[in-house]
Each structure stands twice: as structure tokens, then as C-alpha cells.
Amino acid sequence: MAARLSASLDQTFLYPVFPRDPQCLIKWTRLGSPDAQPVILIHGTPWSSRLWVPYALALSSKYSVYIFDNPGYGQSKHLTQAAIDAFTDGGSLNGQAAATAALMMHWGFTPKGMGFTSEPADGAQSLRAPHVIAHDNAGLVSLRMALQYGCVYKSLTLIDVVAVGPWGLPFFKLVAENPDVFKAIPPQMFDGITRGYIRNAAYKPLRKEDEDMLAEPWVSGNERPGQEGLVRVLQQASVRKSEDVERRYGRLGESGLPIRIIWGKDDKWLPCETAAKLKDLIGGKCEVVLIEEAGHLIQLDQPERLMAEIVLFLGEVDRVS
């Protein structure tokens, strides 16, 4: 996975944020045989599905792989402030969980006893429960989807996830307290701040093409979120609310759902001690794997090792089910 690969998000899902507002557009695609065991890859903040593309392409030789850009990220156009507030819901990410759960139903995955505003796509069949793989704040989103919206998984892989407090880097707090100052920084200077922020998420020096790919949405204009968009994302990242759902994590452990927590041992954003805390909250047969010389951007720091751990875990689950 040394070369930067690409995959076109050629499908569109429209999710109504508010009854009378324009629908939220989510771009997605599916790779591999439609008859294969489904896998869903969910990205976090401030990334996009492009971080998952090499993994999706590799997994698609055996699995039916779904990737998508979260609302306001990547190819899913940026949102109005009102829609962003609805999706983040005071830091709980409840709105994003609801939208992703509705997207799963659109694909044909049937939740347990929950109602949604979306309908399955034309011709969509009821699909078997997917393996779900989540990174960063997609951890909190995927846990809410299961516990709050009845989404059913075959397994859940949580990779350097935002799921338990306390939250946020000091830099997030600094931006949240001075948003107008950061919005007023000249673009060339802000480009340097953005790239420094991204580099801090990695343990190893990033390749230029990877750094450019991660920075592009936040330092370019036109249809991109740009500088103001990243300031808004960092403001939101300073606050996360999970207390209401944290106390229910144990239900997933009790259910017997196979859960694997994978963490970069050198994650400066979310220390690896967080993995042990999350494991204790989930309980059951949940296991933790720590990967050496990997930071928060574990997908780029240790791609071969991460891919090996994902394939190993999915294979273990598939063999016993």
C-alpha cells in the first residue's frame, strides 16, 4: 500500500437534516462482490474516506466494502452552520450517528426495532450484518449507532477512537477560545499551522502526497471547507459528550459482539492508556492490540501491520460464525 490509491465515490445518499431544509448529501461507493460478506469503513475528523481507500481496495478481494465521506467532509459537500450544529449535537455526535445509521438502512442493513426517516434504496436486499471498522470519532459514532439506533454488526473494530473522556488537545481549546483570530490568519501562515497539526497526528514523517491529501480540503477554496471549515472542526473537537452512552458500552460486551481495539502505541492525540479504559467499559471478550511506532494516523504509520491485524480479526470472526 505504498502508493496513494484512489476510488471514486460515485453514489449519493440524501439525508434530511431538517424537514424544510435541503437534504444533506453523503457520497459513497461499494467495492468488491455484492455477494461477499460486507465491511464498512468509517473515517474520523478531520479526515475523509481517502484515508481508508488502500484498505478498502485490498479488502475488496474478499469482502463487499463500503466507504463514504461523512457529511461536510471530502466529496460530501460542506454543511450550513445549522446543519453542523445538528450533526454534532453539542459534541455528542448523535446527529452523525443517526445519519450513518440511515445510510446503512439505505444500503439494506436492517436495524433492530428502530425507525428511520430514510428508506432502503430501490432493489436493496436485506443484507447480513457487516463488519464495521471505525477510526477517531467514528468510534463514538459507531458505538452510538449500535446502542442508540439498533444497528447490528458482525464485528466492531475500533482504531485509535474517540469514545471516552476526557476530550481534546490543548490546541483544540486554544482554537475554541480564539476562533476569530484563527480565521483571520493569512492563508499561507494557516497552511503551515494546518500541516503542523496533521504531522502531529503521525509518528513517522508523512510522505508529501499523503500530507497534501490530508491538508487539501482545509487549505484550498472553491467547494472545499477551507480555513474557516477547519477552525469550526477544531472548535467542535474541543467538546465531546459521551457520558450518556459510555455507561452502556458494557451491553455490547455482554451481547457477545466481537470487538477488537487497535491503538498506536505512540498516539499523541489519544494516549494508548485510553484503549485499556475503553476495554474495561466494554468488557466481555473485547481485546486490545497495541502497535509500536504508530501514532493517531496509524493507517499511514504502520499500514502493513494494521492491515494484518484487521484481516486476522475479521478472519477469526468469520471462521466461528
Set out the fold topology.
Layout: E1 11-15, E2 24-31, E3 38-42, H1 53-59, E4 64-68, H2 81-88, H3 94-107, E5 131-136, H4 138-149, E6 155-161, H5 170-177, H6 179-184, H7 187-199, H8 208-219, H9 226-237, H10 243-246, H11 249-255, E7 259-264, H12 273-282, E8 287-291, H13 298-301, H14 303-320
Parallel strand pairs: 3-4, 3-5, 5-6, 6-7, 7-8
Antiparallel strand pairs: 1-2, 2-4
Structure description:
With 321 residues, the protein is of the alpha/beta class. The protein contains 14 helices and eight strands. It has helices spanning 53-59, 81-88, 94-107, 138-149, 170-177, 179-184, 187-199, 208-219, 226-237, 243-246, 249-255, 273-282, 298-301, 303-320, and strands spanning 11-15, 24-31, 38-42, 64-68, 131-136, 155-161, 259-264, 287-291. Strands 1-2-4-3-5-6-7-8 form an eight-stranded mixed β-sheet, sandwiched between helices. Helix 12 links the parallel strand 7 (259-264) and strand 8 (287-291). Helix 5 (170-177) packs across helix 9 and helix 7 packs across helix 8. The longest helix has 18 residues, at 303-320. The radius of gyration is 18 Å and the shape is globular. The two termini are 29 Å apart. Residues 113-118 have low confidence and may be disordered.
What value does the Rg take, in angstroms? 18 Å
Fraction of residues in β-strands:
5-15%
Question: What is the residue-mean pLDDT, rounded to a whole number?
Answer: 87
Strand segment count: 8
Largest sheet, spatial ordering of strands: 1-2-4-3-5-6-7-8
Number of helices: 14
In whole angstroms, the N-to-C terminal distance is 29 Å
Helix content: 40-55%
Largest sheet: 8 strands, mixed
Order of helices and strands: EEEHEHHEHEHHHHHHHEHEHH
